[in-house]
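USER:
I wish I could look at a protein chain and see how it folds. I am handing you a single protein, as its sequence and its fold in token form. As I understand it, each token names a local backbone shape. I hope you can help me see how the letters and the tokens relate. The protein I mean follows directly.
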Amino acid sequence: MKRLGDLLANLFDGETLEKAKGYASIFSCWKDLTEKNHIASAFAHSRIASLDNRLIWIEVDHPGWKQIIQTKERKLLYDFRLRFPKMNFSGICIMLQKPNGEGRSPDSVEGQALPEEKADGRESSAETVGDSGINYEGIKDEVLKKTLMRLEKEIARKNFSG
């Protein structure tokens, strides 16, 4: 069984791989930053949905969580800038999930939908293979799997647009 790092190394060149690692660490630090800013309970109700135009898009499942995160928005942005100075973040956008649970991230606005789920909560097999041919079925952690698939789409979109 191949390691995730090996799969990413086969998919991307060295420079792109380093960018991907940077993006992945941004998405994975959300829990730590909510804890650091005394809003740890917000982690279970929010996620970093996307990075676009130097903005960090955070998606929440209820307007109350949006308000709570907004109270810490300046400190969270400071912490993101401190951890990732090369990213030159300019702001945080907090958005509410649509009622069906599908977010309104920049990806969905541009027609790049998130993976569809079957009625039992599992992704369909066609959706566990990324655009580049990477098979994500072996990844048991659903949050990690979805994050990697979004990351792959984000990198592909950025490579084609800029």
